[in-house]
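Hi support team,

I've been running sequence recovery on a batch of backbones for a student project. Most finish fine, but this one hangs at about 90% for roughly twenty minutes before it completes. I'm not sure whether the input is malformed or the queue is just slow. I've pasted the structure tokens below so you can try to reproduce it. Let me know if you need the job ID as well.

Thanks,
M.K.
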């Protein structure tokens, strides 16, 4: 039991002694003012700790959602990048085929015109009357060959130009995708760094939990002490009432 109750049980019921004991109990209660400060501090600490824990939980959920969103977008862009790469490869191969075809057309035209010009030279050297018709035919053949090969060359050149323009556009799109992927990677790294910082914050949270437990013990101890002091006061008041009634 408490010292006051023990003293009360061992002391002869004397009004003067009881009054002095009552004053001692009252004085002990008044000197416990620092306990009220401790209670106030603990309550403030528990409230602030709860608010901070809730804010950290909200931030963690938001950061996790952001990281998931960034990684999902990054995965989609990587798939699009791979698809664009395959299309670009097809365009590049097509441009190579058209370039080879244009070279073949030019070689064929050059060979054809060379043959016609050789025949024209031989016809000019032949001064016979019958060769005049041959010379006219070769002249017409040269004109047709020149215009025909030029038309074919223009068609192939136009197709090659369109294919090269498309290939250039695809390359620009690929560059844009690379930039977007690089930006997402930087964002992902930043979110991971924030996660590591939250890990350090969790250690601080463990420290807060430690102090929270101390506060819990402190409040329980103060509550028990108050109950004990109240019991002492009730016992002394009852004893004083009995003696005063005599």
């Amino acid at each position: 039991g408490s010292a006051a109750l023990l003293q009360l049980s061992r002391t002869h019921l004397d009004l003067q002694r009881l009054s002095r004991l009552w004053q001692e109990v009252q004085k002990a209660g008044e000197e416990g003012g620092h306990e009220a400060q401790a209670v106030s501090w603990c309550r403030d600490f528990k409230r602030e700790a709860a608010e901070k824990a809730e804010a950290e939980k909200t931030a963690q959920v938001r950061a996790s959602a952001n990281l998931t969103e960034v990684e999902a977008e990054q995965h989609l862009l990587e798939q699009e990048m791979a698809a664009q790469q395959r299309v670009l490869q097809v365009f590049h191969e097509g441009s190579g085929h058209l370039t080879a075809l244009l070279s073949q057309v030019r070689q064929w035209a050059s060979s054809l015109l060379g043959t016609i010009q050789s025949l024209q030279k031989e016809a000019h050297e032949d001064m016979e009357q019958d060769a005049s018709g041959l010379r006219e035919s070769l002249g017409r053949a040269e004109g047709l060959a020149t215009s025909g090969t030029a038309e074919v060359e223009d068609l192939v050149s136009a197709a090659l130009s369109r294919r090269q323009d498309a290939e250039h556009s695809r390359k620009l799109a690929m560059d844009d995708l690379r930039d977007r992927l690089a930006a997402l990677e930087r964002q992902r790294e930043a979110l991971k760094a924030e996660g590591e910082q939250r890990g350090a914050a969790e250690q601080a949270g463990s420290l807060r939990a430690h102090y929270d437990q101390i506060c819990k013990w402190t409040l329980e101890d103060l509550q028990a002490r108050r109950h004990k002091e109240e019991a002492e006061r009730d016992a002394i008041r009852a004893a004083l009432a009995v003696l005063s009634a005599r």
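--
Follow-up from support: It reproduced on our side and the slowdown came from queue contention, not your input. Helices lie at 3-10, 15-30, 33-125, 131-244. No action needed from you.
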